[in-house]
Design a protein that fits this description.
alpha/beta, 26% helix, tRNA-specific 2-thiouridylase MnmA, disulfide bond, tRNA-uridine 2-sulfurtransferase activity, ATP binding, tRNA binding
Length: 349
Amino acid sequence: MGLNKKKAVVAMSGGVDSSVTALLLQQNGYEVEGITGRMVNTTAADIVCSNAQRVADKLGIRLHILDISSNFKKKVINYFENSYANGETPNPCIVCNEFFKWGEIFNFAVNECGADFYATGHYANIKYTGGFYKLYPAKDEHKDQLYFLYRLGQTELSKTVFPLYHYNKSEVRQMAYDYDLPPKSSKESQDICFIQKPDTAKKYLINKFGLKKGDFIDINTCEKLGEHDGSYLYTIGQRKGIGIAAAYPLYVIKIDAEKNIVYLGKNEDNYCKSLIVQDLRLSYPLEKKEFDALVKIRYNMKAQKAHVTLSDNSAQIEFYEPVSSVTSGQAGVFYDLEDSHLLGGGKVI
């Protein structure tokens, strides 16, 4: 940062993080433009575009609105629906990052806008070391977003900057207040962008698939414990919302989407030590095919030590201690044991 009149194009959502990202780049001497991807054709999408325009106007920068709704439906929404229909739990943000934020939007920024750098409000750090661009954790460990970025390769990383990497979220919000940016008091957005309140993911799926009566089965005894309204409404490790009285807490252990069966068990049934990820993506070429690493199988877990064995397009992961809720469809992401930089990951099968 700090190279005079290099052009940076910022992916802008109208929220605090992307708005402060644009501000910081502007303050560091970049020629800044914004780009907003219109993911869906809804009133909520109109609001996102309008909010982004307000920020652009405040900063005096040009904003491009890129309609990607057609491909977004095919790549993200269809994937989201099909995953649940197949008994998996999807991670739409990872898919969106690969195909849109660092796909269509990234390509438009570089090829059409002539960006030297593409920037987003993600909390992550890129360093060029050992001949490769590598992703390192951000200062704010509560906001660290490497997990969602594991599918980015050298081409994307070489053109990307993350100005927020050395700030805490509270500092970023304070900057929004200090410079009177429009989203300064907006709440943190954690929701799926194409499901609007008061809708929930559950309501969305019921509207899509309807209610489909199926059985709850005890994973150990094969006894029928009750009935549910559709296997797609459950995810591995789920405890709340099962609605069956038992002498001990019941957890979702396994989902058979084809037979519409949800298998339940005790907490100890929810742990295992090994898993496989496929559709492998490495952040940069790794010298070894076998190594110890820190591994996450969902975003909000603490990374656990495991032994990773790479194959052509998959990896076997053996944890040193059992982990809970290994969920098909989520990402298994591995990090360097010494400094926690991102190595790669894949889809849990």
